[in-house]
Amino acid sequence: MLSLNGSCSLNNSLYGVSKTLTQSTQRNISAPPVVVAAVSSNGSGYPLLRDPHYNKGLAFSEKERDAHFLRGLLPPVALSQELQVKKMMHNMRQYQVPLQRYMAMMDLQERNERLFYKLLIDNVEELLPVVYTPTVGEACQKGKILEVLKNWPQKKIQVIVVTDGERILGLGDLGCQGMGIPVGKLSLYTALGGIRPSACLPVTIDVGTNNEQLLNDEFYIGLRRRRATGQEYAELLDEFMSAVKQNYGEKVLVQFEDFANHNAFDLLAKYGSTHLVFNDDIQGTASVVLAGLMSALNLVGGTLADQSFLFLGAGEAGTGIAELIALEMSKQTGAPLEEARKKIWLVDSKGLIVRSRMGSLQHFKRPWAHDHEPVENLLDAVKAIRPTILIGSSGAGRTFTKEVVEAMSSYNEKPVILALSNPTSQSECTADEAYKWSEGRAIFASGSPFGPVDYNGKVYVSGQANNAYIFPGLGLGLIVSGAIRVHDDMLLAASEALAAEVSQENLDKGLIYPPFSNIRKISAQIAARVAAKAYELGLATRLPPPENLVEYAESCMYSPNYRSYR
């Protein structure tokens, strides 16, 4: 486990964590480093059982037990990995509290890495909400970040997820305790996108916290000071980004995660032209929502340009989604981007964003300030704009009221309503409310999962606009192509690939997203589309391009299945 901490005049620090993961050799094919082949144990006896990279528990065969001095250290029965998975899931389902499931999963990851990923891959829909975990680390002085990265034993890092813990899952400023998000996201890069665990590095940059409860908590493990800002903050981020590029090369993907709005947009703009960077809150959310809208058009008819959009929420997610929709409309129609933006309206905490508010707007809201009289609340905005599509990214629960949904339904035969905020308590409305208040006519998806709804004798099943549909496949596509930059057209390609995976059977049920059970195949399709776009844009470095990008992406995906030891 690697940990980083730095101090300077403001005592800034950086914490980084990564599991020591599977040592592997590559298959004898022309492929990038994500390809994994058979492993041979580098230990025997008791140490082998304590090594999560090689331990198989009761799945060691009779021959392996003799060859590696395991007789007497294990019960006599030998189980298959499939039976281990079945037993683990039986045990997991006995826990009534989600935190207990989380602890069981993390304990498994520490004991048996391959079984952990096998369990997650085979039961992704059930275990997806369980895999987020807090982790912390130790130390290095500011100015020595590169030195610490060089001390880390894994040299071929391909994906870094980094946060400063300021805006965690609608929970706010968690300081260094926000590490759970990078660790969880990287678990999904491996389970859903097939990125080798040993190629993943989660990092939390601890610059303090403004959370008074944490500052006054004697057990808080982070810096006990208010957040650094301005030049000190910028210098630390700049040193980190430079060290990452110097140590891991130009093709390492850095995903910014859960940064506050004022930093998230600036970091993406600053490093987007010099590094391979991606912000899941801005770009990942936008891509998955655009895919859902593309699917929804099969139910409502028309094109994106035929629709009018109203957002509740104008932060990272809302403006990111709006911009990608505008880009796709511009691409489809040939109209200027500024013209496409006029079809999209946003409501923030002060009401409809209009031109008369321009002087007080944050820079990322200004492109959405259109000519219109001021409107103070969402219901009045719905009545004024009469949108065909209503999207919530506000983090404010139950704001799509009965009156709002009924108004949407009065203007549209099939109103598209996306309540994207997480967790469930923050969702703008529930599936039950959307279907009942629209008299069963709404096309609904949400950020949080909701069960089927029975209304007037018909069962409605809603989809979940989960970023996990996009970022694992996007990351795989960037890696297999050796991309050096993330381009907006790659995000559009990812959206198109995801929308193409929605079958007519799904649409007949009202679903605008495909089932998660097939997510690794979906990720391979997304990876192929992203890689193809990288080659088309001249941003790919892995040459020559493979003849079949889907097959190539699948061949590069990590497998958690046990390997035979010699």
Automatic annotation (TrEMBL):
Domain Malic enzyme N-terminal: 109-272
SUPFAM superfamilies: Aminoacid dehydrogenase-like, N-terminal domain, NAD(P)-binding Rossmann-fold domains
Pfam families: malic, Malic_M
Domain annotation Malic enzyme NAD-binding: ranges: 282-535
Record InterPro entries: Aminoacid_DH-like_N_sf, Malic_enzyme_CS, Malic_N_dom, Malic_N_dom_sf, Malic_NAD-bd, Malic_OxRdtase, NAD(P)-bd_dom_sf
Required cofactor names: Mg(2+); Mn(2+)
SMART domains, A to Z: malic (SM01274), Malic_M (SM00919)
Keywords: Metal-binding, Oxidoreductase
Keyword flag Membrane: no
Database matches in PANTHER family: MALIC ENZYME-RELATED, NADP-DEPENDENT MALIC ENZYME 4, CHLOROPLASTIC
Similarity comment text for this entry: Belongs to the malic enzymes family.
Protein name as annotated: Malic enzyme
